[in-house]
Amino acid sequence: MELVAVIPASTRDRHVKKHGDGQPLVDSSQDYVLLLGYENQTHTVLRFKRKLDTCDVAYDVPITKSFSLEYRGAYDRSLVR
């Protein structure tokens, strides 16, 4: 599961194919709601909500007590307008 956001306007639920090229694909099941998003000179903040178990077994992982979140960030200047 992957959440891709362009601050501050939009967010899309995306996923990466296991043996793909790493390009995030838009998930057919949009399970996240962006509550807040902003950037300053040192941080990007995203606050979102979703169900603990979205039932999207193909691309989402249920959030349980043993769930751990791994964050990977990237910045693409070409996305900034």
From TrEMBL:
One of its GO terms (cellular component) is secretory granule membrane. Residues 10-65 form the DOMON domain. InterPro entries: DBH-like, DOH_DOMON, DOMON_domain. GO terms for biological process: dopamine catabolic process; norepinephrine biosynthetic process; octopamine biosynthetic process. Pfam families: DOMON (PF03351). GO terms for molecular function: copper ion binding; dopamine beta-monooxygenase activity. This is DOMON domain-containing protein. It comes from Anopheles albimanus (New world malaria mosquito).
